[in-house]
Amino acid sequence: LNYCTNRRPCQNNASCTNTGQGSYTCACRPGFTGQNCEVETNECDSNPCKNGGSCKDQVNNYFCACPQGFYGKNCEISAMKCADGPCFNGGTCVEGTRPAATAAAVCSASRAPTVRRSWTSAAASPALTTSTVYTNHSHLHDVTKGQLLGKLE
User: Fold this and answer.
1) Which fold has domain 3-40?
2) Is the CA virtual torsion 89, 48, 66, 122 positive or negative?
3) Which cysteine-cysteine pairs are annotated as disulfide bonds in the entry (predicted)?
């Protein structure tokens, strides 16, 4: 008995393979799961949207509706600048002076350690998140990369 041909159990354009008399397996297309590939995967289950973004499930994909001030596939990029007031506890925001590809605004303070709310400069590549930046009296550090970013003056 050719179960795949006679019954066509696999759904959503999945491939069916006969594995014995009356038995089969389905090879699901990306975005589907289940014995017969009848269940669409919900890519939003992994919470891919950051910074308060709202996830909309699609077939084998998702879309993040980003809140104002954020953009990117996962709302991971912030358009905030110093004018948006990203620093807390009396920190001073300094716009980056490095080349545009790596420029970032950072919060500085006179006490260490100083951690700020998470936001990313739109021009940063790779993105520099201020929650990973702290001051050690007069030096700025990126703890995710173990880099000294510069010296405060």
Assistant:
1) Laminin (2.10.25)
2) positive
3) 28-37, 66-75
